[in-house]
Predict the 3D structure of the following.
Amino acid sequence: MDFSPIVPALPSLWEGMLLTLKLLAFSVIGGVALGTVLALARLSSNKVLSLLAGFYVNYFRSIPLLLVITWFYFVVPFIIGWITGTNQPIGAFTSCLVAFMMFEAAYYCEIVRAGIQAISRGQVNAAYALGMTYGQTMRLIILPQAFRKMTPLLLQQSIILFQDTSLVYAVGLMDFLNSARSQGDITGNLHEFLLFAGLIYFIISFGASTLVKRLQKRLTV
Amino acid sequence: MIAIENVSKWYGDFQVLTDCTTAVQKGEVVVVCGPSGSGKSTLIKCVNGLEPFQSGKILIDGTSVGDAKTDLPKLRSRVGMVFQHFELFPHLSIINNLTLAQVQVLGRSVEGARQKGLALLERVGLSAHATKFPGQLSGGQQQRVAIARALAMDPIAMLFDEPTSALDPEMINEVLDVMVELAHEGMTMMVVTHEMGFARKVADRVIFMDRGAIVEDAKKDDFFGSPRSERAQAFLSKILSH
Amino acid sequence: MNYNWDWRVFFKPTGIGNEIYLDWFVTGLGWTIALALSAWVIALLLGSLLGVMRTLPGRYAARIAGAYVELFRNVPLLVQLFVWYFIVPDWLPEPLEDWFKQDLHPAISAFISVTICLGLFTAARVCEQVRTGIQALPRGQAMAAYALGLSLPQVYRQVLLPQAFRIIIPPLTSEFLNVFKNSSVASLIGLMELLAQTKQTAEFTANLFEAFTLATLIYFTLNMGLMLFMRWVEKRVRVPGLIALGGK
């Protein structure tokens, strides 16, 4: 084992990590936003809306993320082409981002839904009794409380998402894992680079989930 | 002020309200009592549209609650409501609980809402707690804040849904005192409660409900003097014996 | 942009042997099911063992199992797969290494790597479910069993595990479904399971919408079918009068 070739490769590994983190950040923001909308739709009294949202969630939860990533890589450029009428390539990053957002939204939706349902009906009644509209009630009363309760779960899901971003390897995006693999190939030290990548993933995930557990304890006390 | 006409409500096949008719005049205090499951809480929630009802009509100040064209939020902002479990917003400080709807619903200025909120806190004797959070207050204090929160909207009438039944006995009076004061000031009130002492002191009329129907609707003195129905008699003797 | 929809594509010959494209999907599904089931056997056995270890009174067993869970939960599945596929074979003793790399059919060696990888990965998750199930039981259960004179293995086998497994059927079901979904990573090391066959069909025929739609439908149906099956299992093993413990 010779780990010394990793040092000169650090800049390109860092580039990869930046891409991983960028993908993660956008996916979390987009996924939570879309997931919240889906959760509100699922809880809506409008039957059609809640059925549609339910179907969306069940659909994405029953297929592999890797399938979604690959699907979107092939198909999103087509769809964008149809919409805009042009034939522009959109690149793997965008298609992966869309795939992650839409896929993770299904999982975030279930967390947000449970969070909203954990807030008592009385809070909704009290807000309505003060003359608030549905929008005000959700925005000012229910969601702030729900998000506070479910922050640990949302973070845990995001740690899983952080690990899952490595699947963009399938479409050749140069994220952290893929840069480690390609640097390993170049230098002929694939073993060391892969083990190093695994170690970094472990440190980040383990550190983050330890922090989340601590946060959870503080929230429940 | 509040007119309830032939209101009926079903949960699926189960009828929870049967043909309820009554009215609350301006300045009147009406107490609604009855055994648990009699539909009294459901009825008062129908008054500001928190529960839908399938037939009949409820008018508040001439506006029909069940009408699809009615702007319910606007109507509700004119009617105060106090809940059994207080329902203060736990993520907001006491003063923010009082100002939130004033600012967001009535469009008052933040400073104006604050002044109003502080004045009302003073009135219910809780000025010292303005910056605390609901979880730091006792049940009785929380319910007084909830009353202040409703009053901050300058309501034309107040609805109370069992405001003291979730409280420890020693805290009931501090809440009832605030309500009595409110009644003496001429507030229009509809109160679902088992507190017959409160009814004796300030009620104009007492309504007795059982199994979803209004069994008795009488002037206070008549009700306590000689309730006409057996069920009301049985209920009263049970409640008053301890 | 033009796109020629053609749902009959699945019945067209691939040009390789006598196969039509649908045969590819059938073969792929076969690999997917074989992978998932064999990985699940490993995950269930090892996961149960680890789960029990986490609840044992002794310190070391619980620590070892805890470390296992942290390690396998905090490293991405794909990294683990690369380790099992690219690195571990090189560490094998020479005759074994040669056999694995040269004598075995590449599909078989990939299959072995994915099965081990997925089995150990999922074991960490099963472990946590089993532990939760055991800890959800009233403490009195273990005490009552010990008081009757049962030995520690007997307490687990006769009293704790039968109850714990009934409680955790719903979360175990979703882990079971995850194994099927996660097995798709095998496509990244060249094993021609369902996703890889789909990709290949899409590339051969340019009918990518049809190919991916069929794959999606297969996964969706598989998922629903397994879920119904697990519900049936749950109902069959339910103890009369014990609804509250099931947490339903």
In short: Chain A has one domain: 4-220. Chain A touches chain C at residues 59, 62-67, 70-71, 74-75, 78, 81-82, 87, 163-164, 166-167, 169-170, 177, 181, 190-191, 194-195, 197-198, 201-202, 205-206, 209 (CB under 8 Å). DSSP finds eight helices and no strands in chain A. The radius of gyration of chain A is 21 Å.
